[in-house]
């Protein structure tokens, strides 16, 4: 049984890009599985 739900989420591994394997900085509303580099996103 999970003692503390916050502790459970803190211990989850970082999400990784499905294409290159780099860690992805997650956003709460994003379900993507590729990093900005692999998606071709550039800063404005």
Automatic annotation (TrEMBL):
The record's InterPro entries line, in alphabetical order, gives: YhfH-like
Checking Pfam families in the record gives:
YhfH
Q: Please indicate which superkingdom the organism of origin belongs to.
A: Bacteria
- Its protein name is YhfH family protein
Organism of derivation: Cytobacillus stercorigallinarum
């Amino acid at each position: 049984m999970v003692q503390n739900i916050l502790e459970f989420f803190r211990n989850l591994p970082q999400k990784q890009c499905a294409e290159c394997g780099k860690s992805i900085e997650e956003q709460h509303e994003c379900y993507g599985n590729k990093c900005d580099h692999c998606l071709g996103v550039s800063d404005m």
